[in-house]
Write the structure tokens for this entry.
Amino acid sequence: MKTIIIDPGHGGPDSGATGFGLREADVSLLLAELVGDYFGKYPDAVVSFTRNRNTSSSYPGPPEGLYKRIKYANSKNADLFLSLHCNSGGGSGFESYIAKGAPAKTQRIQKAINESVLGYLKGYRIGPHGNAAKNDTQGAHSRIAVLRDTRMSAVLLECLFIDNPRENKLLRDQRFLDGLARVIVKGVAAAFGLKEKVDKPMYRVTVDGEVIYDTAYEEKIVGIVLEATKKQAEVILLKKL
Ligand SMILES: [Zn+2]
């Protein structure tokens, strides 16, 4: 069994970076939920979140928030701390960080995630931001507390640039985020050798002509249908894959 702590970056009073009215804290939370859903495909993975929809509004901002997250992760005896962010500052692409001097195990996880994510992003003509696999002495961050102080493998993903117009659009696109979540989880699963459940049917969910999920399992479908009916959707389509 592998325990994965999913850490949606920022939250509460800390919006993180913003771009064209979109807040990093909201993107990271949505992405984190999708990542959590995809881990549901792996019977040997359990996930836990450092914040969620209910705690985000009252969540104390950094630095207290960061140390609470670290303490929480360390108390769980987890195998991986996966911190989800998006970048800003006028660039483009994807990059990931691990702590300086991180063990080979962590480097392998970072590499597996990078390969999986960059393969997906190619389809959108998006590449790495510089050298996509960085340690925390490189890039804009000085030292990243959640990487340095967590007592487990820790990887921080900077998923595109929120202040890049084209990438901002993608970060608002539910279908793109769903695919991104899927490949992040695939990368982690490859690194840990996790096997997917194969006996469960998957469905593509379309609401009023818009694909909401490319691949959804039954646990997820109920919530989607409820949400769609609340919004008075007219046509909800489930297609078995
Ligand atoms: Zn961030």
Observations:
- The two ends are 28 Å apart (CA to CA).
